[in-house]
Amino acid sequence: MTCENLVSVHCQSTQVKNEKKKEKAVLDGMWVALVSKSSREDLSKYFENSKVCMKNVLPNIVKKKSFESEKSESNKIRSVRVLYEEGLMSKKKYNAIRKCPIEIMQGCRAPNILPYKPLSQFIKTIDIGNVRDLREFCEEAGLNPVSGVYRSLEPLLLQLASLYIKVNATQPCLHWFVRKWVCFMLL
User: Fold this and answer.
1) Which residue has the higher pLDDT, 58 or 4?
2) Is 133 within 8 Å of 146 (Cβ atoms)?
3) Among 98, 125, 152, where does a domain finish?
4) Of the residues 86, 103, 167, 180, which has the maximum number of CB atoms within 10 A of its CB?
5) How many whole angstroms separate alpha carbon 142 and alpha carbon 140?
6) In a domain, 34, yes or no
7) Under 8 Å between Cβ of 70 and 111
8) Model-level pTM?
9) 27 vs 34: CA distance, rounded Å
């Protein structure tokens, strides 16, 4: 009865002839009215009390968003954090964590961290500047050879200075020495 009465409201101006299109126009209008007139609390209660919404609609939306999130840049960064937090984690332990998904609602899991191989490929793409072998440095300096790598300090400091200037342009946070703009002093 409600839908029949709303046909005149939602379908009059568009001259909709097709019955399916009329029904869709009425349902669209009812939805817009419900969403715009109801409080968030009421909408939440409607969804929570609807088995259709809780078992079919919301899980589909959450799954789609979770899948999209797994492909995002922020998930790559999250995965790097998991790998390196409190020291480098072994591949085996990382994969074990990855295989324990967290279910946030029935049939929907939280976005998963990246698989180990794509994560390691992503890490290799991160520009960490010019890295040199410590053995070569030790040989040039006449010291006992030590394995490892190092970065020259000057390019790193220039990169940090550039970053600070960019951040300061949007959120002033730097105090300049002798009141000279872009004057950095190293101690």
Assistant:
1) 58
2) no
3) 125
4) 167
5) 6
6) no
7) yes
8) 0.57
9) 10
